[in-house]
Amino acid sequence: MLDASNIFTLLKTSEKFLSLHNISEAKLDTEILLSSILNIKRSSLFTIRSSPITEKQLRLYKSYLKRRIKREPVAYILGESEFMGLNFKITTDVLIPRQETELLVEEANRQIKHNNYRDILDICTGSGCIAVSVAYENKNISVTASDISKEALNVALYNAKLNNVNSKIEFLISNMFNSIKDKKFDIIISNPPYITRDEFKTLEKELFFEPEKALIAEEDGISFYREIAEKGKKYLNDNGKIILELNSNISKKIVELFEMQKFKKIKIIKDYANLDRILVLKNG
To answer: Is the separation of the CB atoms in 170 and 125 below 8 Å?
Structure first.
């Protein structure tokens, strides 16, 4: 039973409610959901802990909690998520941006600044979180962002406008490279689908709310990496780079695919769990 006598007791009883339904991040989720309803920063909740909540706000909050115990992710409940310090609209047509993918963007930003790169291609852009973040951080660059899903591209375009970088990004409906013309790029970036069908069966319940086609890759997780490896050179400048998010369970197989195509592995970046997560390759 929720106690809504004030913000503090509501959060405490809500956290217990979510915990009883095996929500691992119960405290964090209650705070994010309530701060969104109150239209304040999460850190500000503790400055108004003795304040009451209106009946209208409480009804909405309870509806959010009911959705959460069904394992619907917070980002889909709120329709938004934060990535690289920027705000993004999120719908069930796109994956929820993840902290590990920020490592990919950080590495892309380093390569762009160090090498004075100008032309960037983001394949499987989804919500546009990578393309938008790179465009936001770097001046005088041009980004092409492609995806096979028209619905995903609509979300990505909205996010580009939301973060005032739409003039720097061209969005293309494309099945991988199919709609990319003869243009060459300094960097090809991608966080492609890479989960195997066997892995998909073991995922936490929240992942089943996300678009399956943005998660699963055929050939035991290799298919999208294989296409980038086999076709990437055609679209990459001589000293260009490819930066990819990895399925850490098959990272060695992925590296071998690119080495067979005469790409040079520069480095693999570990994620916060010390797993292989980002692969950086050089053309030639």
So the answer is: no
Q: Could you report how far apart the first and last alpha carbons of the chain are, in Å? A: 63
pLDDT per position as a tens digit, 81-113:
999 999 999 999 999 999 999 999 999 999 999
pLDDT tens string 146-201:
999 999 999 999 999 999 999 999 999 999 999 998 899 999 999 999 999 999 99
The answer to whether the CB of 192 falls within 8 A of the CB of 244 is: yes
Give residue limits of the domains in the chain: 7-70, 91-282
Q: Got the DSSP string for 41-103? A: -GGGGGGSTT----HHHHHHHHHHHHHHHTT--HHHHHTEEEETTEEEE--TTSPPP-HHHHH
Fold of 91-282: Rossmann fold (3.40.50)
Helix/strand/coil for 148: coil
3-state secondary structure of 267: strand
**Do residues 129 and 88 make contact, with C-beta atoms less than 8 angstroms apart?**
yes
Instruction: Report the relative pairing of strands 276-282 and 264-270 from DSSP bridges.
Output: antiparallel
- 0.90 surpassed by pTM: yes
